Amino acid sequence: MPPISPTTQPIALSIAGSDCSAGAGVQADLKTLQQLGVHGLSAVTSIVSETPLEVRDIEAIATSLVQSQIQILLETYPIAAIKTGMLPSRSSIIAVCEILKDHSIPIITDPVMIASSGSALMQDDASLAMAERLIPLCTLVTPNMPEASQLLGREVQDHSDLEQAARDIGEKFQTSCLLKGGHLPSGVDRLDILWHKGKSHTFTHPDADIAGGIHGTGCTLSASITGHLALGKPLEQAVENAISHVQKLIANAKTWQHGGQAVRCLGW
Predict the structure, then answer these.
(1) How far is 145 from 8, CA to CA, in rounded Å?
(2) Domain boundaries, the chain
(3) How many Å apart are CA 198 and CA 158, to the nearest integer?
(4) Pick from 132, 139, 140: which is nearest to 192 by CA?
(5) Confidence (pLDDT) at 212
(6) 94 exposed, middle or buried (CB, 10 Å; 0-12, 13-18, 19+)?
(7) Which end of the chain is more exposed for a tag (fewer CB within 10 A), N or C?
């Protein structure tokens, strides 16, 4: 990609946790935005001690400091799109919403609730605040199937559930919804459903068949959508481009061995 002039380069903001293994969170978001030619800003909400195999510790950043990071960036930069990722507590969600509610910038919300390793990343009362406060503010929410189940209060388990679930989330929260089918049974094509402006858009791609999955795909996907919106793409095109981008990274995944287990990361 040819260099973009600093005077015309679009800017996007990631509000998310810091992943010390750099496969997810703010680190993955900034790498994704850089690949797209978008200048990435970050407001860190938490520090996570993790690898693709485990989450060992989480330390939330003081809500006043989270707000201070966001406020100074909004005051200084012409931000074209915002992505929210890990918001570990009810207070952090409310703190972010108190600032974002007064702005008309497109917001992509990745409702980060559970890590790839299965560890909880959000306090119990935070999911309610996300549903009541953050998701209704956003332009697009990007839940996976377990997150969709939590948002709807019912199981979302197979292909036949996805379209109705995406529509129900979109209508319940008055937003657009990209429901990711990465938790479908292995060996079947992946299916992602976008519900946007009263219509369903279907995206299919082959199952990568990588045992144990890959760390950071959800963060990277939502960051890529955010970057494409910052570049001026309409939402449907931004989603399609982002899915294609992540599939290429999955196809080039890198693997290390640790104690007999495979540690996999996206192939940047």
Answers:
(1) 38
(2) 11-265
(3) 22
(4) 140
(5) 58
(6) middle
(7) N
Contact 33, 39 (CB under 8 A): yes
| pTM of full prediction above 0.85 | yes
Q: What DSSP line would sit under 142-187, residue for residue?
A: --BHHHHHHHHTS---SHHHHHHHHHHHHHHHTSEEEEB-TTSPTT
Percentage of residues of the chain with pLDDT beyond 90: 73
Q: What is the CA radius of gyration of the chain?
A: 17
Host H or E run for residue 247: helix 235-251
Residue whose pair of structure tokens reads 């950043």 in the numeric block? 61
Report the relative pairing of strands 199-205 and 190-196 from DSSP bridges.
antiparallel
Residues 166-217 pLDDT 10s: 999 999 999 999 999 987 877 678 899 999 999 999 999 887 656 556 889 9
Residue 193 confidence (pLDDT): 97
How distant, in Å, are the alpha carbons of 60, 99, 246, 247, 254 from that of 250? 30, 35, 6, 5, 9
Nearest residue to 243 (alpha-carbon basis) of 259, 221, 210: 221
- C-beta of residue 58 within 8 angstroms of C-beta of residue 48: yes
Average pLDDT (212-239) is 94
* Predicted pLDDT of residue 4: 47
CATH number attached to the domain at 11-265: 3.40.1190.20
**pLDDT exceeds cutoff 90 at 262:** no
